Amino acid sequence: MSEITAAEQAGFPILSMLMLLPVVTMVALGFMRQGRALRRVALAGAVAVLGLSLLLTAGFQKGIAGFQFAEQVPWVESMGLSYHLAVDGVSVLFVPLTALLVVVVMLSSWTAVRYQPKAYLMAVLAFETAAIGVFIAVDLILFFVFWELMLIPTYVLIKVWGDGPQRGRAAMRYVLSMLFGSAALLAGFILLGVSYRSAPGSGGALSFDLVALMDSPVPLGTQTAVFFLLAFAFALKAPMFPFHAWLPAALLEGPIGMAVFLAGLKMGVFGFVRFVLPLVPEAFAAWSWLVAVLGIAAVLYGALIALVQSDLRRLLAFASVSHVGLAMLGLSSLNAPGLQGALFLIVNLGLVSTAMLLVAGFVQQRVGSSDLAALGGLAQRTPALATFALIACLGAVTLPGTSGFPGEFLVLLGAFRAHGWPAAIAVTTVILAAAYVLVFFEHAFHGRIRSTVVETVTDLRPRETVTASILGIAIVAFGFFPAALLTYSSASVDDLVGRLNPASSVAVGD
Amino acid sequence: MDVTGLAPLLALLAPLLGAAGVVLLRHRTPARELCGVVAGIAQLGLVATMVPAVRDGGTVSFTLSTFLPEASIALRADALGVVLAGTAAVLWVLTTVYAMGYFGTTHDPALTRFYAFFCLTMAATIGVAFSANLITMYLFYEALTVITYPLVTHTGTPEAARGGRRYLAYQLGSGIAFLLPAIVLTYIEAGTFDFVRGGIFGSDAGGALLVIVYVFYLLGIAKAALMPVHSWLPAAMVAPVPVSALLHAVAVVNVGVFCVLRVVLDVFGTDLVARLRLGVLTLVVASATILLASLYALRLDNLKAILAYSTIGQLSYMILGMALLSPGGRTGAVLHLVGHSFSKITLFFAVGSIYAASHRALASELGGIGRQMRWTMAAFAIGALSIVGLPPTVGFIAKYFLFVGAVEAGQWAVLVVLSVSTLLSAAYYLRILRSALFDAPLAVTAGGSGDASGLLRTPIVAESGALVVGPMLVTATVTLLLGVAPGLVLDLVRVSSG
Fold it and tell me: Residue A348's closest CA among A308, A401, A300?
């Protein structure tokens, strides 16, 4: 696997800058006093990261499967560790997505977070650094470091700024669940690094470098062990049914800002595509039936449970489980449409679930609750909010014309090709998704006004309108122009499909 | 000739801009309403510019976005698309004018929503009409469902909410459960999503899978209201009259039939449909729908409900014509698509006019109203004659082609179905006409007609205003005109069904 260095492509270490810019902003905030300027500086930092990440996507060369903008500095050479950052078609889009979500979170919490805003903004920025690091690290141990780093701001954000009474417990539950996964992840990575020693051309040295590992075959026995270790870790993070129990709690108890990251950045699915598929392809292919079964179970389970939720956040948590199942089903189909669809689906989830959570946030700020029982008739008082909510709902329903559709369609195509009827029937259960989201919309926005609070609510304010429009436009635009995203990932996906189907690699991308 | 051009895209954008204009001008009426009219005329003009290109079988294409090497969101106007889009554009303009008369020009925000979504409905209809492949068609087809939902629930009553929910559940449910899988299966079998006249499956294609796919299409395209996926249509009757007019004559049902025609002509191809004996299957379903809907309509008294069931039956005429697979049948199908639109919208306009003037919504209340609302009942009579299929209306010409088509195909049973259903529809339409034109005016008194005091009062019902009567007379005139001079559209109709 070849790679293009950042020096050749950009002339400066763009990925390091992306990763460190939030840290710089954080330090700047640390020296400032509480006040209005605080939010502006934090927002400026977040917007700068977003701008830089858009520069990254603009400079990214589509049609190449290898890594780009690579930076590599030896770290602990005796252990085969290096500070190695790079992006390819799989990861490049998640950087601007993360940056966008951070901007949205900052805008949405402008007035909502009153307690210790400085610490809050610093925690969000810390999370941004770790999250970007996760997406751009191509050294396994470096990835692991970022992966663990995310836990600290996540824990703090849920525990301190959570909305629910049980937030402390939810935060602890999240961290403990993740630590289980982390142990498995580290074990899997070490197993890979050690097995590299016996690979031809390694000269008996350890390596945790993704690029090097991708080119050295791993014996099937090791592959299976690594597959289960990694799959457990990533399934827990995704979360994939049946490892999802932490998500509803965290979404309900945590602040909207953290919920956006937990529901919108599907790092578990990313982990599968980043590490499991290229490093242990034979094991993944052999166990893809299990992934498919769990995926289908998740689609059904998530949708059915979501159907009976009365709180928007819990509803979203289970809808999210359902969508992750769909993405996993796409991966399990081992073909280009399935993989493309899965990636598109999780990018869409970033946009749509963020939009839905914003709706929940807007409603909560106005009415004091995101429980459906208190709502009804909101559209009469807040037409702009209702429009935004409708776009978000339609995206969540994966209706054609929104960014939800291309991903779902490609997964359906891939799954049908790989698994036939059962998978196709499972995918059509997104019809249940249609039911639960639209029922929510109708209850909250249409019908009689049931509470006196709703009588007097105000519509979206200018800042909120800006936030909502960014997401609303993105959701519609990518529904009509999915190629704008798919062309980034197609070469990398074709390469992955070739690795998953070594015998038929000629027919890749048919 | 096949050319690449912006016209299909612009025709799609015109109503979108119209919707934006409606929202921007929400505080300035009637500028708000005129926005829709202007956009409609612009759209009609754009559609008209494409007629020369498509008249001899050509197309005008424009690709919006590609998302698989073989899948794109692409527009392609052909004769069939132009027929649907042109019909929709004309009737959109007229319905907007009618709505101005029907609702009056107030600043009601609900009316802003109404006009804006009216425009969006047209955008989605144009999108379906000019879709170049199954993905694009599905995209706009589902968009149409969602966009029409606020129109169906316009009044906001609990009853409207119930009807709207049923509407949405049927439409989205059938779309996702049947249409989407059918499209994916089509791709897996044929390797393409693009419409090609004569079909996209190989010449040796066949087997049970294709039969299943075809049935999925019929079930998935619920907008065509073939039984058993028809009951959304009566449910949607909770909407105000201009919406019903739009749903039942212009946008939704036409899109449904159009999609079925596309599937038969450009996905399966008439040869394959004949070889798999799917034509006969469709004939049976369509015939059953026609007869059952007509029988059901006989028992109804609510005018809008009668029209709803009449529509279900008439849509199946079109599908039946296509399923005959003979040249006459196909011509009749497309001509009926146009003719039925004008005739049925005339009927809806008339029913709305009666309701607005007298608040009467039942057939049994219409006694003598023909003397009070002469223009309205004249238009109603023309529309009814056309639906029944009597000369000199376009309905007669369409039915003539259907009869010819049935003879060409040797489907004698279809002749019986057509005859029986003509009698049935004559029964329920002529009953209304007779009562309205010849019965004594409905009298209102405390003691009923046998009241000894003889104090019978006839409520005074005045004819509706010009904005209501005008569009109604235009559509009635077109119904007659196409009946007298079908040559105006026949060439285009033949090309689109050939």
Answer: A401
